[in-house]
Amino acid sequence: MLLNFQRTRDLLSNFQFSNLFIEELGWSKPSRQKPVTLKFDNKTYQYQKIAELSGVAIFEVTAVDGNIPEAKVRVAIHQ
């Protein structure tokens, strides 16, 4: 499978990570796609599995307000 660099750049630029992993990189759709809600520092975030391959999962975390969380919040969510 040849990688379409222009499409890959476009998907990255538009934050379309699910399409990037599944359509361009050939990963599988996740077995569970329902988002999970979590709260940290009085803010609400959702995370969901967007792709998986050989037991490795890709998760996407989004804030309800659309902002990227600060570094300490990203670390806490990761843990």
Automatic annotation (TrEMBL):
<dbReference type="GO" id="GO:0005524">
    <property type="term" value="F:ATP binding"/>
</dbReference>
<keyword id="KW-0547">Nucleotide-binding</keyword>
<keyword id="KW-0067">ATP-binding</keyword>
<protein>
    <submittedName>
        <fullName>ATP-binding protein</fullName>
    </submittedName>
</protein>
